[in-house]
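Fresh eyes needed here. I'd like your take on this protein's tokenised backbone:
***
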Amino acid sequence: MMHRRLHGHARPGRFDRNLVVIGGGSAGLVSAYIAAALKARVTLVEKDRMGGDCLNTGCVPSKALLRSADFARQIQRAPDLGFRSIQADFDLKDIMQRVQRVVRTIEPHDSAERYTRLGVECLHGAARITSPWRVEVEDKALTTRNIILATGARPFVPALQGIEHSGYLTSDTIWQVREHPGRLLVLGGGPIGCEMAQAFARLGSRVVLVEMLPRILPREDEDVSSRLAVRLAAEGVELRTGYRVLRFERDDGSRRAICVHRKQEVAIEFDTVLVAIGRRPDTEDLGLDAAGVELTEGGTVRVDDTLRTTCPTIYACGDVAGPYQFTHTASHQAWYATVNALLGGIKRFRVDYSVIPWATFTDPEVARVGLNEQEAKEKGIPHEVTTYDIADLDRAITDEAAEGMVKVLTPPGRDRILGATIVGSHAGELIAEYVLAMKHGLGLKKILGTIHVYPTLMEANRFAAGNWRRAHTPGGLLRWVERFHRWRRGG
């Protein structure tokens, strides 16, 4: 039974709404959609632009930019495809305008008009929680049985000396650029940093990527990140791993980042700097204290395995809740948060993180689901590793994309998939077969026994399964079969 008082606040006798969702990004939109589909009265509050980071500053604009950069790269590789030469004339302003055109084309999918037609009340303004059952939006007070926090995250900018005078950009503001960035310094060797470094290098910038750790993509296995590092370097990206930025300096129109590397200070000059070293949950000015909503040490909203916060009427999903910062996990969490908020008195569902895929959309792409080698070793999980080199794949050869690998982890002697990593062209698409297999308990023998169209990149998954099968064919059986065939020949 619902408490009559929570954190000193009296529960209202009646409610205007079943649910108020704060945040109109991926998690909030899906939450509102599900609530409306369940015939609940739901209000969605967004203080900025509907669609959140994914539509406006994240997934959509970045992939649009990467597509243009990929086209520039294809022109540069014309001789590989049998063309003597191809020339292209472009202005970055036109490319960035195209990026915004793509955003505007997708924008109606996340618009207030669309969600209003679906039965969601959409309000524009800053929301503040004043009690476990009350949200204020500008001068309007909303009473609700439950609240979902889906406020997302924003780029983290470190408090480095001189950074305020560096003219720095983030993944939020880089889309405002219309002039060529010239010498571009990228801080951070994670997915965003690597994607943007490669894209702008392909569009003519002199790019230096600085990463404090010994290698880029530190969450991936070393052989995976090293493959991408080789490609980035080949395309002109100067990688400075093991460098830590100390401060920024500016004089006579010159801008420099002063870094420390092996105890020595090193100056890196730049025209433009992109800070891409992570994102912080957006929890400020929400009034969380009033409802007794606690945060973790990492700054995310503390939630249990049903996505309920420390206030029993409030749930959270998406980047503000963690532990993942992907659009697809935000949507995944939104289902659990919404159903538990609306129907938790009947049945509660524990969020399932057992099969979470993701991809870094560099070239080659890096995609993963489940465990990789370094995680398995850290957790002490016994495993075997099976690989397949995409350099041998017919379709990859015809596409001039014969680069990368499929890497699968299985328990010793068994074909159950613990995790898979793919490096190569369209890896983000190819990983789906392993996601499906892991979700539904299908092993490598099932993948091997499935017909794959020839010639396709998808065959790489079957060949990886074939490599596992060959490594686990009983030697005694093969010797018996050899003797059997000798006998059949009359020998």
Summary: The two ends are 82 Å apart (CA to CA).
